[in-house]
Structure formats: structure tokens, C-alpha cells
Amino acid sequence: MTRPWFALGTFDAGSGNFPGQVVGDVVYDVRDYLPYASVLEMLADWETAFPALAAAAEHPPTRGTIGESLVVRPPIQPPGQLFAAGANYRQHIIQMAIAHGLGFSGATPEERAAQAAADIDDRRANGEPYIWTGASSAISGAFDDVVLPSGWDDHDWELELGVVIGKRARHIPVEQAMEHVAGYTICNDLTTRSLVPRTDMPMMGTDWLRAKNFPTFFPTGPWLVPAAFVPDPLDLGIRLRLNGETMQESNTGDMVFGPAELIAYLSRFVELQPGDMIITGSPPGNGSHFGRYLRPGDVMECEIDGLGSQRTRCVAEGSLA
User: Fold this and answer.
1) Would you say the C-alpha torsion 10, 13, 16, 20 has a positive or negative sign?
2) In the chain, pLDDT over 90 holds for what percent of residues?
3) pTM higher than 0.85, yes or no?
4) Helix, strand, coil tally for the chain in percent (to 5)
5) How far apart are CA 300 and CA 200, in angstroms?
6) What is the largest distance, in Å, between two alpha-carbon atoms of the chain?
7) What confidence score (pLDDT) does residue 53 get?
8) Is residue 144 predicted with pLDDT exceeding 90?
9) CA 294 to chain centre
10) Crossing angle for the helix pair 109-126 and 90-100, nearest 10 degrees?
11) Rounded CA separation 281/233 (Å)
12) Which residue has the higher pLDDT, 181 or 69?
């Protein structure tokens, strides 16, 4: 039997946050019919919570709220740990190699592309993912304003698939990794490009802490779609528009390392907990490619097939938005 589709999120109807179950275009307060005070509590009890939520979706309560009248918060409150994969889309890496050289000085664009593709294939076969950690304090909602910090003018976008953990994971083989996924969401991983390199400490290379963790730099949501409703996370269209113009358009199948491999790799070094999110890299089409960075007044619209959409407006730090 096909289960009715539903999603989970955190919402505010004017009297504080509540955990919501989205069925169609209606949001129901889960506290009215299940013993969970937050989405995080549901994730911590996911093997029991999911079937109970599925049953509720078949026979929704009589009382709900139309989504447009609600404030949409980040789906998981409080948010868990945040992990992010870098250089994880094949065409993105090739695009960067062509544009910036990346060690291929003197080579033609065609030679750079071919060498980058060969390097990716070798890394895929013999290497490992590259993952860094983000600050949960930088997570914001799918319709919140993005605050552009003053002092820099090269704030960039990076649309990504978010994988949310629903079961503790430690030393998990790739073959079992997807058993630990509760669901998926959308995350836009913003970056202040000039803050990435540490010119004062070149031996240390990059500094992801200062470049990526300003408040509002991880717009997330609008909700969490359970894994049962995403048949193949490596076959999802992913696209970002800036002021109506498409800048990123790809498919999650272009990932070098998929969600299972990222989970297995991470679980070797850290303990993944329910509510943690892994963002899985960004496709080509960042602002650094176009030489066009975010400005106050810009509007980003982000979509991933089956996961909803975001719409965020950029505002200057300190502005009365």
C-alpha cells in the first residue's frame, strides 16, 4: 500500500514554535495527537514515530492550519550537528578547474577539464570525501532574510541536498548507512569567498569557520521529507535562481560521494546523532563562476525535486529589513 505523503517541520502560528506534520497544503500540530514536543524528539524515536506519523497522515485530524498563515522555522529545533561535504559534484570540480587552474597552469581549458575528470575518478576509486563542520547557530529558515555581513562583497550561494540522521551512527559500513537516514531537506550553504584562504597562515590553507558560519548563512527547509518518500536521493533535480535567473541547475546524481558514503566516512570519526544534518556539496553555477556575488535586495529561490522550495531575500547587516 502506498503511504500518504507527508513532511515535518517547525512552525509558529503566533504563540511559539510547534512541531508540524505537513499533509497536502495543511499543517497539523503533532502535539495534538502524538507525544512529541519537537521534530528532534520525533527523530530521536524515529522507528516508532514514523509509522505513527504515517498512520496520522492517512486520517488527519479535523483541525489544521493552512501553511501560508504560518511562520516557517528551520525544520529541526534545536538543530543538531552540521557537517558539510566540499568539492563533491563532478561538474562543479571540472568547472573550477577550467576557470581557476587548480594546479594545471599552462594547460588549455580542455586539458584542465580532462585532468580534473581523471583526478575525480581516481579520488572516487581510491580517495575519501572532504568534510568540514558548520555552526548550527548559522541555520535559518527557508523564507528568512539572509543577512550579508558588512566588510566584504563576495558572498556566494551554494545550493545543497541536506541528509538528516534518524538513528545513531558510529562505524557504519556503506551498505548499512542509509538505514540511519530519517529524511532530506534543502540547505543553501553561503560562503564569503575572500575569507576562505588564510593568507596570514598559508600553511593552514582554508578557513571554513569564518567564511561560512555567519548568522543566516545556512537557510534550511522548508521542511524534512522522510526518506520513504524519496526513492533515490541520487536522482533529484536541484536548481537555484537569483532574481528569477537560473544560476544552478543539475542533478544530485552528479555527486562524487553519495549520502551512504558520506555517512560511512563520517561515522569513522564522529558519532552521528538523530537530528544531525549532512549537506552534500553544491553543483556548478556559484557566484564565483559568474563573477556575480550577492547584494542587498537579491532574492534567491532554491528547489530540489520533491523537497519543496525556499525563497530568501538578501539584506545588508544592520539594515531595517
Assistant:
1) negative
2) 80
3) yes
4) 30, 30, 40
5) 33
6) 68
7) 98
8) yes
9) 19
10) 140
11) 13
12) 181
